[in-house]
Design brief:
The protein has five helices and six strands. The protein has about 150 residues and is of the alpha+beta class. A hairpin with a 6-residue loop joins strand 3 and strand 4. The strands form two sheets. Strands 2-1-3-4 form a four-stranded antiparallel β-sheet. A two-stranded antiparallel ribbon has the order 5-6.
Length: about 150
């Protein structure tokens, strides 16, 4: 390779990298905002079959290891669905009960609080911050959340 070839390549690499980044953001908007892809209208819960309310603070989304996206109407349904198959869960997205923002479900804190009405009456809410979760009950991390199922 000549110095001229190296200079030409050096000029093209940043442009190619920018094009790849733009393609990733367009294809996966969650990369830009940390938001989950919107729940498609009419999507049914992967556990109970109820239509998932895209605005619900209890909606969740799981991308499995084989690339399948599953949506759930209630965090409890999501946990129940994967209670014995957690290793199949690749990405988990839940909504922060305090803000309604989509957050990484594997980093979230979960609380069982019977005063929190949820679509399927599991009464489990997710929080981005442990301090917020403590205001509503005893927080459990992602693995501990499966123990909240009763």
């Amino acid at each position: 390779m000549t110095p001229r070839d190296i200079n030409g390549l050096a000029l093209r690499v940043p442009g190619m990298a920018a094009a790849l980044l733009l393609a990733a953001i367009v294809s996966f908007p969650s990369l830009l905002h940390g938001q989950s892809v919107a729940v498609p209208q009419g999507t049914k819960c992967g556990e109970c079959g109820m239509v998932v309310d895209e605005n619900s603070k209890f909606a969740s989304e799981v991308t499995t290891k084989d690339g399948k996206d599953l949506f759930f109407c209630d965090i409890g349904d999501m946990l129940f669905h994967f209670r014995s198959d957690r290793e199949k869960m690749n990405n988990v997205r839940v909504r922060d009960y305090a803000t309604g923002e989509w957050i990484d479900g594997k980093k979230a804190w979960y609380v069982l609080n019977r005063k929190i009405p949820t679509p399927m009456s599991w009464s489990i809410a997710a929080f981005a911050m442990e301090s917020s979760a403590k205001k509503r009950g005893d927080p459990a991390d992602f693995n501990g959340a499966f123990k909240l199922l009763r």
